[in-house]
Structures are given as structure tokens and as C-alpha cells.
């Protein structure tokens, strides 16, 4: 293997020793070659660094904004879990004088199970015509629906549920929860790897999950209307309960969180684009 050494002649020029003497080397070339050899920098490495930078590393200010938007999305996730896991989506109640005794019966259910509750008429507001609300103390009996096991419809106050609509509402809610988990994973990777690219799939997951949550609420309301119209023997009063409020707020918050991630993923600030800063000298 041949080795090349750079030496300096009497006039201070850098030369390369050869078989028949020395060959002068331009100063810029020798310094550039030595610099590249000493530092190990090449054009390929420079292009690689430029490609990595083009993926969008975040600054501390961007990281703070992402964490704030992630907190908004987490609020939507918590509200969704609270609404999906509880059975206070709708309350059904006949007139408090329907049974002509000291007690009356009310029912409330959600996506997974339904509950019937026996209330004392004396505990009900005298101005209220129907039995309820379900939050009053009384004897409660809750059972899970057989939609997902034997495929049987549930019967409440001689009215039959529409299992297809109930199953559709439950599946939409579960798929929305899956998208929320995927969005949270993308944000976690964006914060850990400091790459803005993961904000785009996260925004898609959160926006779509918010839309599916609201769509699940619409389908569930249609299932309630189908239940009420299945039999008119027992007149019932129905009202949506607080679990529905959680679901509605969750859908709105998730969509807002997804929009915030879209704005943070843009290569420019939308506020500076819409309202450009004017130079003071102009």
C-alpha cells in the first residue's frame, strides 16, 4: 500500500514527494483535502444532513405547542372513555301514576348494558309528570345486552330494541377509540424523535375519531327512536342523559385537537401568512 506525505519546501510551498523529485500541490487543494480527511465530511454526508433537516425538527416553542394540543386531545379521549363506559345515554320512564302505587319504574341504558330502577313516588318532584330521574335512590337492576353474544334483542317496557343500530353505534365508538390510541402513539413518537412528520397522521386520526364519535351518537339516537316506535302500548318519556353530553363534547374537542395538529404541521405559520408583519421602515 502506498502512503502519501505532504512536505514543505524551502519557499514554504506544500509539495508531494515523487520518484524523481517533488511535485508542488496548490495550497487550496491540499488544505481542502486535509480538512476533508481530518473531519471526515463528504458531500454525501452533507446531503444526508440536509434530508434529515427537511423532515422538520422541532424547536422548544414548537414542542410546547404540540404538548398543549396533545393535552386538548387527551381531554377528548378521557371524555370519550367516560361516555362509552357508562350507561346513562338515555333515560326511559312512563308516567309516575302509570302503576297506581307508591313506586314507579324507570330505565336507562348505554352501548353495553341497560338498567331498570324502582323509585319511590314521594321522592319525585311533584311537578314532574314522568318517573325519574334515574339518579334518585332506589333499587336498581343492571344487565348486559345480549347483542354481542346470542344476538337477542332487549325488551324494555314492552318495547324491542333494534340490535343492528345498537351494534353499529358500539362499533363506531370502539373504532374511534382505536384511532385515538393510534393518534396518541404518533404524537408520542413526534415528541420523542423530534420529527414534525408524525403530526400529520396524528391529526388525521384525531379528526376522524371525533367524527366517528359524533356519528355513533347519531346512530344511537336513531336506535332510541326505533325502540320507542316498536310498541305504543306503554307511553314513555325519554331524554338523553349526561353520558351523551360527554360524547358530544368529546367529539368536538377531538376535532379541535386534530385541527391544531394540522396547523402545527404546516411549514409556515398561518397567522403570519394571513397577517404578514409589515416592516417599520416601509
TrEMBL record:
Main location as per UniProt: membrane
Protein's membrane topology: Multi-pass membrane protein
Taxonomic lineage of the native organism: Eukaryota, Metazoa, Chordata, Craniata, Vertebrata
Subcellular location: Membrane
InterPro entries, alphabetized: PMP22/EMP/MP20/Claudin
Cited PANTHER family: CALCIUM CHANNEL, VOLTAGE-DEPENDENT, GAMMA SUBUNIT 6A, VOLTAGE-DEPENDENT CALCIUM CHANNEL GAMMA-1 SUBUNIT-RELATED
Keyword terms of this UniProt record: Membrane, Transmembrane, Transmembrane helix
Transmembrane regions: 68-90, 167-192, 204-228, 240-266
A GO cellular component annotation in the UniProt record: L-type voltage-gated calcium channel complex
UniProt protein name: Voltage-dependent calcium channel gamma-6 subunit-like
GO terms, molecular function: calcium channel regulator activity
GO biological process, one term: regulation of calcium ion transmembrane transport via high voltage-gated calcium channel
Domain of life: Eukaryota
Protein source organism: Solea senegalensis (Senegalese sole)
Amino acid at each position: 500500500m502506498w502512503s502519501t506525505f505532504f512536505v514543505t519546501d524551502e519557499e514554504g510551498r506544500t509539495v508531494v514527494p515523487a520518484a524523481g523529485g517533488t511535485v508542488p500541490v496548490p495550497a487550496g487543494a491540499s488544505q481542502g483535502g486535509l480538512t476533508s480527511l481530518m473531519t471526515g465530511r463528504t458531500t454525501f454526508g452533507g446531503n444526508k444532513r440536509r434530508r434529515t433537516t427537511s423532515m422538520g425538527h422541532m424547536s422548544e416553542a414548537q414542542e410546547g405547542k404540540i404538548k398543549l394540543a396533545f393535552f386538548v386531545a387527551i381531554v377528548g379521549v378521557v371524555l370519550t372513555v367516560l361516555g362509552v363506559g357508562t350507561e346513562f345515554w338515555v333515560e326511559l320512564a312512563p308516567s309516575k301514576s302509570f302503576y297506581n302505587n307508591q313506586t314507579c319504574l324507570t330505565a336507562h341504558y348505554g352501548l353495553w348494558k341497560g338498567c331498570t330502577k324502582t323509585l319511590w313516588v314521594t321522592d319525585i318532584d311533584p311537578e314532574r309528570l314522568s318517573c325519574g330521574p334515574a339518579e334518585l335512590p332506589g333499587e336498581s337492576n343492571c344487565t348486559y345486552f345480549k347483542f354481542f353474544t346470542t344476538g337477542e334483542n332487549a325488551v324494555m317496557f314492552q318495547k324491542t330494541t333494534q340490535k343492528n343500530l345498537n351494534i353499529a353505534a358500539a362499533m363506531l365508538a370502539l373504532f374511534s377509540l382505536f384511532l385515538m390510541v393510534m393518534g396518541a402513539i404518533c404524537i408520542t413518537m413526534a415528541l420523542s424523535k423530534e420529527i414534525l412528520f408524525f403530526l400529520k397522521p396524528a391529526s388525521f386520526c384525531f379528526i376522524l375519531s371525533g367524527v366517528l364519535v359524533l356519528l355513533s351518537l347519531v346512530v344511537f339516537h336513531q336506535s332510541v327512536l326505533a325502540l320507542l316506535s316498536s310498541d305504543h302500548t306503554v307511553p314513555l318519556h325519554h331524554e338523553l342523559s349526561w353520558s351523551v353530553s360527554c360524547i358530544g363534547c368529546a367529539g368536538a374537542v377531538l376535532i379541535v385537537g386534530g385541527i391544531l395538529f394540522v396547523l402545527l404541521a404546516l411549514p409556515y405559520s398561518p397567522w403570519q401568512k394571513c397577517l404578514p408583519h409589515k416592516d417599520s421602515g416601509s
